[in-house]
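Field guide to reading this record: the first block holds the primary sequence, the second block holds the structure written as discrete tokens, and the final block holds curator observations. Each block starts with its own label. This record concerns Probable Fe(2+)-trafficking protein, catalogued under organism Buchnera aphidicola subsp. Schizaphis graminum.

BLOCK 1 — SEQUENCE
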Amino acid sequence: MNRIIFCTFLQKKSEGQDYPPYPGKLGEKIYNQISKIAWKEWKLQQTKLINEEKLNMFNQNDRKKIEKYMKLFLFNNE
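BLOCK 2 — STRUCTURE
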């Protein structure tokens, strides 16, 4: 059975994630507030950012940067 949540990104009810897609408290927040559709949009944006800014996901500073972008993208109204 699909989980229906109110997606804060889309501002409407939508199918929720099957599991937290990110570790920790942020992952739980995403699980509870971000739909599969919104997460897919973020993944596309993330790929663009990684490529355009030549980010290296093995580099801790670059991972922190992409996390910051993710928070802004998904929760920019908070």
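BLOCK 3 — OBSERVATIONS
The chain is about 55% helix and 10% strand.
The chain has one domain: 4-75.
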